[in-house]
Structure formats: C-alpha cells, structure tokens
Design goal:
The complex is a heterotetramer, with two copies of chain A (306 residues) and two copies of chain B (275 residues). Helices cover 30% and strands 20% of the residues of chain A. Chain A is α/β, with parallel strands linked by helices. Chain A has one domain (8-304): Aldolase class I (TIM Barrel, Alpha-Beta Barrel). In chain A, a hairpin with a 2-residue loop joins strand 1 (8-10) and strand 2. In chain A, helix 2 (107-116) packs parallel to helix 3, helix 3 runs parallel beside helix 4 (175-185) and helix 5 (223-236) runs parallel beside helix 6 (250-259). Chain A is globular and about 55 Å long. Chain B folds into three domains: 2-100, Elongation Factor Tu (Ef-tu), domain 3; 111-226, 3-Layer(aba) Sandwich (Rossmann fold); 227-275, Dihydroorotate dehydrogenase B (pyrk subunit), domain 3, CATH 2.10.240. Chain B has a seven-stranded antiparallel sheet, with no helix packed on it. The chains are: A alpha/beta (306), B alpha/beta (275). Chains in contact: A-B, A-C, B-D, C-D. The complex binds flavin-adenine dinucleotide (2 copies), flavin mononucleotide (2 copies) and FE2/S2 (inorganic) cluster (2 copies).
C-alpha cells in the first residue's frame, strides 16, 4: 500500500503534517527540543506576544483540576521588539513551520504587531488571539463580541501579508456567530478553541488558588466542548479549522478531524507526555492506512456524512 | 530526557506517620544528574492513561548512582498525586522526565554550609556527597518538626557522612529547640572563618530560606536557595512556574523555576509571597 | 463544642442541611432509596417535567469523557398529568424536601406547569430549567437570552406561590447578565450550573456517539467553570445560589460554598458513588467544626473576603 | 446495596489473546443475587478517587455462591475501564453496587433452551444451574468466534453440567460452522416438544437476540432476552439506559435496562438500532 499522504495545505499554509502545538504551551520552540523532535511536527505556535513586554500575573499561575489545568500566566512575554531581536532569528532556524500568536488590549496593539510580522519574517502564519479584554471598551473581550472580533481581524488582515488565523474563545453563547464575524473580517482560518474560564479555591486557605482568581481551563476535561464547537463551525462556516482543546491521544486528534478540523494542535497534552505529538502522528497515519485513506486530509469532517 | 524508569525500590521511609517514601528508579537519568536538579514524574503506571490526576509531579533527585544507573527520590505523601504514586510496585515502569533544571554549584575549596528545613533536606544529600568527594568541608544545619521526623528523613545517612550536624526541632525532642537559622547564626557569630571562605546552600520552607538568605548576607556568605513552584511543562515552555528576581540594575525580572532554577542565588530572589 | 448547625434557610426554603441532589440524576426520589438514606439529605430535585409526556432522545444517551459525562436524555418524563397522579403522591411522602424541576418549549408551557404546582402540593420549591429551545422563537434557548429568561421567570412567578429557583445555563457569554435578568424577573434563588454543551465522536463508526449528536457535559470536568460562575454571580447579584457542577467530594462542596453557594447539589457524583451526599455532609460538618464555625451557613462566600 | 467487595480471585480466563478475566468478589451481594442480574463496579481501587474513568461498569453476575458469600464476574477487556479493572489485585477492595435489575425467570417445569452469542454466555451459567436444581431440562446453543474462544469462555464448566450442548463457530473450528440460531432452528423443526413446553433465554449481540426472538416466536416459544445499554446511575434514576418496548396496546414505551431489565420478554422488544 502506498504511504498515507500526511502533508496538509490550507489558507496558504503548507504543513508537513497536520500536527501543531498550541500557543503558550510550547514556548518559542526551543524548550521541548530535548523531548520531542521538532522536525517531526507539522508546526508550532509560538507564545503569544504583545507590543510591550509583560511580566504577567503573580504566581500561583497553575492549578490542576480533574482531567484539566487552569492557567493564569497573564500573557507574560518579551514584547515585540525583543521578540524580533532575540527570538525570531532562532525561530527562523527551527526545522518546522512556526506560527506567531499575537494579543492586544486595543485595536492598535494588534495592528502594531501584525504590521511587524510579514511573510519575509519566515513565519508560516499569524494567529490572532482575541481572548483579551479590550481596555478601551470597558474590558469587554474582543473574543466575546462579534463586532470587535471582526474589526480586529479586518485590521490585522489589512496590514500583513501572512495568512491570518483567528483564534476563538469558547466563552460565548454563539460560537458560530463569532466564526462568521471573523470570516467577514477576512480571516483565512480559525483556531478552535482557547481555554474555558474557570477557577479553583483552596479550601484550607479559603481563597482562590490562582493569584489572578480566574484562569483558563485546558486539557482533556474541555475536549467535549471543543469538539462540539469544531463540529458546529465546520457545518456553518467555510473556513479551515485548527482544532485544539484537550488533545492527548491520537484518538482525540482523529475525533477533531472527523468533526471538521483540518489540522490539530496539542497544548496541555505536551505536559502530560512530550511525545504526544509524535504518538498522535503515528496513530493518525495507522488509522488512515487501516481505512485505506490516501491522505490524512480525507478525514476532515468525515463524521458529518453519517 | 524522557524515560521509563523501572521501580527497583519503593518503601516507606522511617515512621509510617511521617508519610515519607523512598523510590529508586533504574534508568539513564543518573548518568547526567547533579545535586539540586529534579525530575517530573508521572504519578501513575504509564501503561494505561488516566487524566486525573493530569500533571506530572516535580521531585528532587535525592540520590544519584551513575554506576548502577539509579536515582533515588524521597517524597512525602502530600496530596492525591503522591498518594497514587505511592502505589507503584517494584518492576512497574514510570514515565520520568529529567534531569531537569539547574542544580547547586560547588565552590573550588573552603566550607560548604547546608541549611535544610523539613524535607528540604532531600536534595542536599547528593550535594554533600559531591562536596566531600571534592574535598570541601561540609556542615549541616537541619531543622524539623521533631525527632521522629529527622530520624525518618535520613538522619542516620547524614551521620554516616561524618560531618558536623546541627540539629534542631520545634519541640526540642532532638537537638536544639527552635529554628534552624538560629543555630547557623550562633555559629557564624563564633566562627573564625570569614564570609569569603564559606558558601551556603539551603532548601526548605520559603520563610526559612528567606531568613537564611538574610542571615548569610549579613555575614557576606553567598548562598544558593532551591525554590518550589507549581509546574506545568517543567521545561520552560509554559511560564507557569516563574519566580521574581532582582537583576543587577535593580529591575524585577521573572525566571522560570523549572528551567533557570530551581536553584538561584539567594540575594537575587524577591521573597514577596506571590510575585 | 456545640454541634454545627447544618440547617439552611433561603428564599423561603427550609432545608435540614444544604445538600441536595440534581434534577435528572435522582429520578423522582425512590430510585436511590436502597443506596442513600433520603432522610439524611437536605432535599432532592426531581427529574424535569414538561406539560406533555416525552419519550426523549434515542439511545445512546450517555458518553463518558475524561472526568465527565455527556448526556442527551432529551427530557424524557411522564408529563404533568401523570406526574401529579402517579408521582407527586409518593414524592409527598419522601422523608426530605422535594424541589420540582420544570422545562418548556414556550412561555405557555412554563406557565401551565407552574400553575399546577403550588405550596399545597407539598413541594419545597420550583426550579425552572431554562436551558431549553424556545420553539416559538426559532429555537433560541430561553437560557441564553436574558430577555426570554426574565420573561419566563416573571411568568412563572406570577402563577405560583412556591419559591422560584432559576436554573441557569453555563453556555453563555455573560452569566452575570443572565443572573441579573432572572432577578429582574423575580427569581427567589439561582441554580448554577446546568450542563455545558459538548459532543463525542466514535472514531470507529465515524459518527457522534450520542444519537442526538450533542449532549450536556457534567461531572468533575466542569467544576472549575461552575465554581467560577458561582463566584461571579455571588459578587454581582444578591440572590441565594444553589451550586452544582461536578461536586463529588466534600472538598468540592466546601469550595462551592466558599465561592458563594448557600446550598450544593450533587448530580453525576451519585453515579460515581451513591453515598457521596452523605460523605459530603459529614465532611462539611467536620470542616466547620475544625474551624470553629457555628453554622454551615458561615461558609457561604467566605473566600471573597481574602 | 453498595458494598466493598474483596477480590479473592482475579485471573486470566483461558487464552490470553481472548482478553477474558475471571473476578471473584467476597461480599454480601451473593445472598440475594439471581441469574441475569448485574453489578455496577468501580473500575479502580476504591481507596483513592480518580475521576478518569468516571463511571462504574455494568457486569453480569456469572456465578453466585451464597454459602461462601462470593459472586463471580467474567468479563472481556474491552476498553480503558475494563483494562484498569484488570489491574485489581487479590485483597484489594472494589466498590460494587448490586445485585441490580431483574434477572431471568424460570418456568415451573419443562425445557429451558439457552441461546448464547459470544460472551453473552456469562449470565446464562447461573441460570442453567438454577434450572437444573429445579429439575428442568436444559440445553445450550452457543456460538462464538472460534474454538479458542469457546474453550476460554468456560466450555468445560458447561460440559460438567452434563446437558446437551449445541456449539457453533464462525470458522468451524469447533461444532458447526455458522450462526447459533441456525442450530436452534434445526432442532425446533425436528423437535417433538411443542412451543408450550419450551422456554428460552438468550444473551449476546443484539442481532443474534433479535433473530432468536423471531425464530422462537414462529414456534410459539416464549423467550427472555438480556439487553445492554450504556449506563449512568444503574438504578433507574437518570434515564440514560432506556430501551423501547411495545406494550399490549401496540404503543411504543420506554423501559430502563438497568432497573426494569436487563431481562425483557423478547416479543415486547423493539429492535431498531437506536430507539
Ligand atoms: C523543584 C521541586 C522539587 C521538589 N522536590 C520534592 C521532593 O524531593 N520531595 C517531596 O516530597 N516533594 C518535593 N516537591 C514538592 C512536590 O512536587 C509536591 O509535594 C507534590 O507536587 C504534591 O503533589 P500531590 O499530588 O501529592 O498534591 P496535590 O495536592 O494533588 O497537587 C496538586 C497540584 O499542585 C502541585 N503542587 C502541590 N504542592 C506543590 C509544591 N509544594 N510544589 C510544587 N507543586 C506543588 C502538584 O504538582 C499538582 O500539580 C518538589 C517541588 C518542586 C517544585
Ligand atoms: C447489563 C449489562 C451486563 C453486562 N455484562 C457483561 C459481562 O458480564 N461481561 C462483559 O465482559 N461485559 C459485560 N457488559 C458490557 C460491559 O459493561 C462493557 O464491556 C464495559 O462497560 C466496557 O467498558 P470499558 O471501560 O472497557 O470500555 P470503555 O470504552 O472505556 O467504555 C466507555 C463507556 O461506555 C460504556 N460501555 C462500553 N461498552 C458498553 C457495553 N457493551 N454495554 C454497556 N456500556 C458500555 C462503559 O460502561 C463506559 O461508560 C455488560 C453490559 C451491561 C449493560
Ligand atoms: C499555560 C498556557 C498558556 C497559554 N497561553 C496562550 C497564549 O499566549 N495565547 C493563546 O492564544 N492561547 C494560549 N493558551 C491556550 C492554548 O493555546 C490552547 O488554546 C488551550 O490550552 C486548549 O488546548 P489544550 O487543551 O490542548 O491545552 C495557553 C494555554 C496554556 C495551558
Ligand atoms: C442524566 C442527566 C439528566 C439531567 N436532566 C436534567 C433535567 O431534567 N433538568 C435540569 O434542569 N437539569 C438536568 N440535568 C443537569 C443536572 O441537574 C446538573 O445541573 C448538571 O448535571 C451539573 O451537575 P453535576 O456535574 O453534579 O452532574 C441532568 C444531568 C444529567 C447528568
Ligand atoms: S513549568 Fe512550564 S515554564 Fe516552568
Ligand atoms: S442507568 Fe440510569 S436509568 Fe438506567
């Protein structure tokens, strides 16, 4: 049997295979080198950056929950300038595709970042994290208001020649509405999902575990919500989807692809086992072989046919 | 390095009520490990995945035998994760990442003072061994709850090293009554050795390490401290475990306990509770 | 030391202790009798009823997920008439307080149900499940639209003399906005939270596991989201809260109370271990004793003081 | 009844490749259990809670020894839950709810025909025992994958009962080649016993039970079937496990497999795939 074609192409992004790693869980690409061969990955998504450096939230920033992880890192990052100077040169040398992730607290923040990141930066795409409060609009999150989300994506799209991936927040009543909004804004692809807002209280100290009170819930616990959103958006919106949220086994990855994801991204799963991305790749390949699929792309959305 | 360590010893350490365990794992980690480094261990049999609990647990390397390819982990059953870990049977394989982080450094010569609070003693033993092997003079200040704790947590092995031990317990059941730092202070006062000839390393509760750092600063003794923080990735990728340091210019900066530490110079640590 | 006062009173509801069981997970009260002594519970919430009998969804209705459970029962219930005739008489004899749970697909449905359930029915309160599609308004869920939610609660309030508990859906952008809406509608108390919408795909059959495609996610996986919502609503809205969502240990129950819940309710936890409610009661009692609290009510919202 | 059953035997059943296990639990469940009832067993050591996997697993009672307070469960390692269950060691305590549901009924006299497909055989053994004890004539029709399976899944114990066995395998490696219902049909054709003298009980794949039900209906033999469905509460409280029956008036109704079943009269079951 001829080998399964693993390569994937969507929204102008070419990947060796559909396995990515999630922003914020994989640093700037060098941290996991001793644990997982980057050249085996389809690509990595870099830690979110903001225009200025941020120290982020105080610790504790993490709390373990049943099959889940709460994090409140608070977007700690070196800022754009330092990113361009000290990190990007190394990122360019990574043996896999790199997607930058940008965050902002105003439209201007996003534009500033997007303008600085073009095709000639060597990046494969720009992921726009809209799960941030818009400080100029009373803290309403860009990611929970379709209008703001559309504006941000449109503004970013206007100033960069890189493919633009809109990363949606699951903390909304209507994920399809959000997807439609960013499509109107011109998004080339979608990342689904960011973390669910949660919290955990230390009953001995009688106060929240996280210094920030609230944190984002990730890991296997949220997978059913993530798969549902990928499914709904796949049905309603014609944009390629990068599926994420609790992927820890190859079966999970296949589930996301059957639901409609063109590629999958692994976040918290790396913490459980840094070889998860490789195991997933192997698992997907075997799955396709057993079912006689010529290309991994044939899996996308297959469960909708039933 | 990600390896499957085979459990070769897993036993209760001392008094059962102390809930301490000794776990010896066979695998290649021993070959490159240094005192002060740690591992991130999966707290369940690696053959069937369960995602509750989800995360690995950071545990210091408390013994290194490169000839036998064995590392020793000493831990206290603290919560659900360590409770599950404690069930691992001899012969089982546990998934271990390590050695992780940067360990303690050793001076060329002179005296090394070790200051331990409670189970903070564990990573200091391989450090004492290395220091002695290098011909340094080593002494230990160790404070614990009570006699039962100190004896359970390895007092006899420390005695076997033949170094001066300054013990203290909160209830006075062994050694002096009171805090471990008080003993160090007494000796520093009396000591003829100048600060330049002494180096210190400390591990234990934050408050204790802070007090030790201040004490040693007064005597111009440079001290290394081993910090703890909740970890996600354990390799520097998630920024979950930062600590705050002050750099030479007086600017507050973040460092990752897992990658840049867990050992830092005491003077650069900002000890405020949560930033 | 004098024993901890466990009794709880809120919104005109008097409970022996603050431990309830969730609607849909405890039948009509008789099913668990051999497994958990009902007289030890503060009360039970009955399976949701609708005006007419419903067969609900086809099977499979359940799917296990990491630390969670998806269900798509589809509101199977005997209907109001049969409830009044065959179930209510037995419910009245239960040795604990019983809260009815009502669901509808139009405003009229809710009114019809509420009118039939008054104080003289022997019920302790009426819990209004608004996580249902409003078929007259294009299927928009009552529970995701503040306006509809307020209307439903106001309509129910107008026709029953029982205390009215509004049970909120977590599948919304702004849970505080929903809580405020039902408060305006006249709700006496809140139940937080219903299930998160999720799904699971069978990768062998390449189709959704649940016959209904989507299901509600419950169990420990969702606890961080539930605690966060209780916390947010407690801060913003002055109504007693019944906290639920993943409670399986006494520590979980204490966590909800510290976050602001006046009572707690156990759903999926009963499936894990039917003695969970008793263990929780004992655990809460011990916790209060150790901390010298005279009444379990002293726990409510305590973590906000930190 | 919710009890902690102590594992007294936990072993591989037959060929390891069949992934079958025999688990004997000591506890009071045996005293009231009947053939066809089941238990809901927690698939992990009950001393430390983990919520992944979350739910109990329904397993039929395959052996009842009330004198020794023991029940036997026979199961196939199928997914993660049973895989974790398979790790339970002798002496461990597992949380078990049961006996649950309504079991098979026995006629006063006459012949009892048992029709089993695959591991559907397990709940039928205690039924055969009760029937024989009551003086009924019992015969078994049992179909499986192949010889290895039938031998692993308890053929010798059935032989020991001294009843007629009609075996079939898909590959012909033991007994007749083909489906188990074909053998029953052959005998029904030849049989002198009229429908009224025979009662049947069947357990196995849905398709097989449906075929058996239709077959017996043609011969006016009343048959009981044991259904399977995914379960939440296992006590009738969650409505997760319903099956569809048709009542005397021809109206479709739902019944709970856990509480009203798992055993139902074959004629009343609506066999459509999912309602
Ligand atoms: C670098 C480092 C070295 C350590 N070395 C040792 C050692 O040698 N021996 C020993 O007994 N303990 C050591 N600890 C502490 C040990 O990691 C915690 O006791 C352990 O994580 C508690 O896990 P649990 O599952 O029992 O508790 P749980 O309450 O189930 O833990 C819940 C979560 O919080 C985290 N957590 C809880 N307490 C701590 C803590 N003190 N530090 C970091 N994370 C924590 C857990 O890792 C887990 O993610 C070390 C910690 C660090 C950071
Ligand atoms: C009344 C009854 C009696 C049973 N008796 C036996 C028996 O004696 N021996 C035996 O080997 N098996 C029996 N089964 C089937 C057994 O329950 C499943 O094989 C088992 O639940 C699979 O669990 P798992 O964790 O290995 O699989 P997983 O894939 O981890 O299961 C995931 C979820 O699906 C449920 N599930 C999966 N398959 C089934 C199934 N076939 N029926 C019901 N729920 C399922 C599980 O309980 C769990 O909630 C019985 C089922 C029922 C309903
Ligand atoms: C520690 C941590 C940090 C994260 N930081 C970011 C970030 O900077 N930008 C972003 O868009 N998403 C961030 N995320 C969200 C992840 O990229 C991902 O969407 C989410 O964790 C769900 O996937 P998972 O369950 O596989 O982790 C972060 C997640 C974690 C756990
Ligand atoms: C099987 C099942 C059926 C349910 N049916 C109802 C219902 O009829 N009405 C309702 O308001 N909530 C219903 N719920 C939601 C629960 O009452 C509860 O809000 C939710 O499960 C969260 O709590 P838990 O995590 O403790 O289960 C149901 C939940 C489950 C698991
Ligand atoms: S634990 Fe992830 S950076 Fe340290
Ligand atoms: S499993 Fe809950 S009703 Fe049968």
């Amino acid at each position: 049997m001829s080998p399964v074609n693993l390569s994937t192409q969507f929204a102008g992004i070419k990947l060796r295979n559909p396995i990515l790693t999630c922003s914020g869980t994989y640093g700037f690409g060098e941290e996991y080198v001793a644990y997982c061969p980057l050249e085996a990955l389809g690509g990595i998504t870099l830690k979110g950056i903001t225009p200025l450096p941020r120290l982020g939230n105080p610790v504790p920033r993490l709390a373990e929950t049943p099959a889940g992880l709460l994090n409140a890192v608070g977007l700690e990052n070196p800022g754009l300038e330092e990113f361009l100077k000290s990190y990007l040169p190394k990122v360019r040398k990574l043996p896999t595709a790199a997607i930058a992730n940008i965050s902002g607290f105003s439209l201007e923040d996003y534009v500033l970042l997007a303008r600085a990141l073009q095709k000639d930066s060597g990046l494969a795409a720009l992921e726009v994290n809209i799960s941030c409060p818009n400080v100029k609009h009373g803290g309403m999150h860009f990611g929970t208001d379709p209008q703001s989300a559309q504006e941000v994506i449109a503004a970013v799209k206007a100033v960069t020649d890189l493919p633009v991936i809109a990363k949606l927040s699951p903390n909304v009543t209507d994920i399809v509405g959000m997807a439609r909004a960013v499509q109107l804004g011109g998004a080339d692809a979608l990342s689904l999902i960011n973390t669910l807002l949660g919290m955990h209280i230390d009953i001995n100290q009688q106060r929240p575990v996280l210094a920030n009170t609230f944190g984002g819930l990730s890991g296997p616990a949220i997978r059913p919500v993530a798969v549902r959103m990928v499914w709904q958006v796949f049905q309603a919106v014609d944009l390629p989807i990068i599926g994420m949220g609790g992927i820890t086994t190859w079966q999970d990855a296949v589930e996301f692809m059957l639901a409609g994801a063109t590629a999958v991204s692994i976040g918290t799963g790396n913490f459980v086992n840094p070889l998860v991305p490789l195991e997933i790749l192997q698992g997907i390949q075997d799955y396709c072989e057993k079912r006689g699929l010529a290309s991994v792309h044939d899996l996308v959305g297959l469960a909708h046919r039933a | 390095m990600l390896t499957e360590g085979q459990v070769v010893v897993h036993e209760s350490l001392g008094d059962e009520e102390q809930r301490l365990r000794r776990l010896v794992l066979k695998g290649p980690i021993a070959r490159t490990a240094h005192a002060g480094q740690f591992v991130a261990i999966q707290v369940q049999d690696s053959s069937i995945s369960s995602f509750d609990p989800l995360l690995r647990r950071p545990i210091s390397i408390a013994g290194i035998s490169s000839e036998r390819d064995e590392i020793t982990l000493l831990y206290r059953i603290q919560g659900r994760g360590t409770e599950i870990l404690a069930r691992a049977k001899c012969g089982e394989r546990l998934s271990v990442m390590g050695p992780l982080g940067k360990g303690f450094s050793l001076p060329e010569k002179g005296e090394l003072w070790l200051v331990a609070g409670g189970i903070g003693i564990f990573p200091l033993y391989p450090l004492a061994q290395s220091a002695l092997a290098q011909g340094l003079t080593v002494r230990l200040f160790w404070g614990g709850e009570n006699k039962s704790f100190l004896e359970s947590a390895g007092l006899s092995s420390w005695k076997a090293l033949g170094i001066p031990l300054h013990l203290s317990t909160l209830d006075g059941s062994l050694g002096q009554t009171g805090l471990v730092t008080e003993q160090a202070q007494e000796l520093l006062k009396k000591s003829s050795a100048s600060g330049g000839q002494i180096r210190a390393a400390t591990c234990g509760p934050k408050k204790m390490m802070q007090a030790a750092t201040e004490l040693f600063k007064n005597y111009k003794v440079s001290v290394e401290v081993s910090l703890e923080e909740r970890m996600g990735c354990a390799v520097g990728a998630c920024l979950g475990c930062v600590c705050t340091l002050v750099d030479e210019a007086g600017v507050l900066i973040h460092r990752k306990v897992c990658q840049d530490g867990p050992v830092f110079r005491g003077e650069e640590v900002v000890w405020n509770e949560s930033c």
